[in-house]
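Exercise 3.2. Students should predict the tertiary structure of the chain below and write it as structure tokens, then compare their answer with the key that follows.

Predict this chain's 3D structure.
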Amino acid sequence: MKELEERIREQGTVKPGDVLKVDAFLNHQCDVELFDHMGAAWARHFQGRTITKILTIEASGIGIACVAARHFGNVPVVFAKKAQSINLDGDQYTTTVYSFTKQKEFPVIVSKRYLNEGDHVLLIDDFLANGKALRGLIELCRKAGAVVEGIGIAVEKGFQGGGDKLREEGYDIDSLAIVESMNPQTGSVEFRA
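Answer key:
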């Protein structure tokens, strides 16, 4: 998606340690018009698929997923919580994921009331690096008996290989911008063609 690639080039910041900051428009300050264009792109890609729910992980995926849901007939958006709280009651699906940006492992939790057997799920997230967060969401769907129909990603760090491994396993991943390389010294970002 050229629009997203241009925004990354103009407003993204490359940091040491393979970190790409896009907080000006994607995961701190949210450009809702851009999110709407992203949702439309995913709707085109996954056209003809039955999508009954969108599943993401807190926190950065929530805004993107909510706007994207409007392009799928306003299906419910469910987000996996990263911590147990008193608001989470009843039976739950849980797994553990490792966060590349936070450099730590944490639990992810979804109430069994909101992810069900027979659901056809589109996974949405802001970043795909090594694929650990997505594998956690896929595991939650497996536990629920839900079908993963596809995966929509805003920015994939292609050089980290997580997306390629998931594609090899048969998952349909639509990443709107795939970063091939980035340089913290120059700030340059190169995208996969």
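Discussion points: The chain has one domain: 2-191. The first strand starts at residue 13 and ends at 15.
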